[in-house]
Amino acid sequence: MSLTAPGEAGNLPVELTSFVDRRREVTEAKRVLSVSRLVTLCGVGGIGKSRLALRVAAQVRRSFADGVWLVELGELFDPELVAHAVATALGLREHATAGQDRSAASPVTLLTEYLAARQVLLVLDNCEHLVDPVAKLVDALLRACPKLRVLTTSRQGLGVCGEVTLPVPPLPVPDLRQPPTLRGLPQVAAVALFVERAVAVVPGFCLTAENVDAVAQICRRVEGLPLAIELAAARLAALGPEEILNRMSDLFRLLGAGPRSAPARQRTLRASIGWSYDLCTSAEQRLWARLTVFAGGFELAAAEGVCAGNSLAAEDVLDLVTSLVNKSILIRQDGGTVRYRMLDTLREYGHDKLRESGQETALRRRHRDWYAELVAGAEAEWISARQVDWYARLEREYPNLRAALEFCLTEPGEGGVGLRMATSLFPYWFGRGQLSEGRYWLDHALAQTPRACVDRARALYADSMLAGQQNDVTAAAALVDEGQEVAKQLADVSTHALFTLAAGYVAGSRGDLPRSIALLDTVLETFRTGNDLPRLLDALFALAVYSGVRGDAARALACHEEVLAITEPRGEVWYRSLSLWALGLAVWQQGDSRRAAELVRESLSLKRSIEDLLGIAWCLEALAWIAADAPDPRHAANLLGAAHTLWHTLGASPATVRHMLAYHDECEQRTRRALGEQSFQIAFQRGTGLALADAIACALNEKPQGLPAPSGAAAKLTRREQEVAELVAQGMTNKQIAARLVIAQRTAEGHVENILAKLGLTTRIQLATWVTEQQESRA
Description:
Blueprint: H1 23-35, E1 38-42, H2 49-60, E2 68-72, H3 82-89, H4 107-115, E3 121-125, H5 131-144, E4 149-154, E5 164-167, H6 189-201, H7 212-221, H8 226-234, H9 241-256, H10 264-278, H11 282-291, H12 300-307, H13 317-326, E6 330-333, E7 339-342, H14 344-357, H15 360-380, H16 387-396, H17 398-410, H18 415-424, H19 426-432, H20 435-448, H21 454-469, H22 473-490, H23 493-509, H24 513-529, H25 533-549, H26 553-567, H27 574-589, H28 593-610, H29 613-627, H30 634-650, H31 658-675, H32 677-688, H33 692-699, H34 719-729, H35 734-741, H36 745-759, H37 764-778
Parallel strand pairs: 1-4, 1-5, 2-3, 3-4
Antiparallel strand pairs: 6-7
Helix pairs in contact: 1-2, 4-5, 6-8, 7-9, 8-10, 9-10, 11-13, 11-14, 12-15, 15-17, 15-18, 17-18, 18-20, 18-21, 19-21, 20-21, 21-22, 21-23, 22-23, 23-24, 23-25, 24-25, 25-26, 25-27, 26-27, 27-28, 27-29, 28-29, 29-30, 29-31, 30-31, 30-32, 30-33, 31-32, 32-37, 34-36, 34-37, 35-36
């Protein structure tokens, strides 16, 4: 998982190496993006399209109030999942508004609803293998979302109306018609890149009279392609510049004799990659090819489990991986867990070698088996202290899980394993809010395995639960009916109990609470006897909720307490956080606000550990409701503002649950009355300006870092800066401020940036709130 830059909306990765030159291309791309809503950076693989796109996106980030979001499509191969990938990158969590059937809306429609009023830049990276589905999605979004802009990278344009394509050229190379000089050569971008990367390999490397000519020729021979230059520089660990040049000369001649039908850009790039491949040992070459079965990166244990065997010993994989890292074939990534990935162009080359070896299907099956075992382990340990770790690990491995599922559903005879994998992933999809994608895989796996069996029954249950969470009650009921037929055919008690439970959820969704409670009651003992903890927890939580809605507080409390008695000793998080939240509300309704706040804060801490955004929003809401009774209602207004921002981000609202909306409205009205309208708005806006981490810290009574600066900071501002700050508080843009003060827009932008820096703020909303507080304190 990439590191992201702090303090900015979006998910752009932090640059880990220097960005050489490209000033002209960056300037041109920014100019075109300012007047065109769709810009595509086109060029051969390895030319630097992705890096250029990220630099452009980083520089225009302040122009997009709702963030700049990177969607990496290089490891996605199923056209139907493009919209899901965009939603995942945006951090969306699906929800269902009461009475609304979310299954009726396509992923494109759901994205359109979310982006319709938002000012967002989407960066869609590596679109060439998904041109048609990406083009359709981009066209639909641009037509429906007037503030959206899209920057894509691809080997060809999307062909969408209004698209502007910008070719990405190679880096400038030395003009060999003139003798290279030590003074002029470092100013040439290709040479500057070579030298910077060379220093990372051989500290102290520099251009000398002895190597200047060879370096110039290396950069010229690879035609300024950044990937080829970096690979060439990496070889300095074993070869001198002259030796590198000699080997490249041989390889260019060999590749030049290849078929003329191949595009020149492919011949040049393949020469660079082939040269790197030929410098590897035979064992390194085998591992390189085999590692291409991974999608989106891998851990060492996975490489050992999947790639070892057939003339490659498991105990040698570590040394070989290390060697491939040193040779810049693999990129080492640190993020708590060390992972490795391969550049797309290198992966494509190695994948060709894997196909030539005839081992592709066997390696893909071994890859699938490894990840099938992984998700089975996650399912087995879900109700345990390892649940948080499993959430994180499945998140990291999700591209590989998709690849394994795709293999199961496209390779004849593998559908049964795919069905088991998809079912094992059900709690992950449910907890992450990835409901549509979970249903997609389950539906396809079920279609391939029509035979009545226990695996099919478990998959039908999982599919029905996901459908029910989307308020697609019709589909959920149909799946339950089919599951009950399977249970009859199997004559299995546990399977019958499973669909009695599912039927109880369907009845509850339809509002038939007496029937729901009766059904759920009948299966509790079966699940207790069979030690089926996940299903027992499903039943208990539903009973608690439906009993509470019916007014049976004693039964609701008893069910919640049993959930906690099961989950707390085991260190489980998700079910426990649900019950703590609901129990907190129940205790609050009985008048114990202090204990209620403790329970909801405990729930919030757990939800933070698994990044359950929808659950976090509900916790912020509940703590606001409880705080409305406290002596200082400003805290309630802060929390309402923080929850409002998160609901907006999720595209959700408290109205999702009807009887909860009444609590929200009552809290807001009471807080407004207690504070007065102006003070309420100040406190509310203070909350809306908090980053998520700071909002959680505020709710937990920790010290948030993002609150507006104290009033004493006013002395730091000049008279002009104070004037600009007040105009920001009036809602003016930089352009409007410039016109009002008769200054250049760039000058106005500089003033705003200086003000934010002086006051320790990050957003214009925080600045506006600060100004309002200053005015209120002087009144």
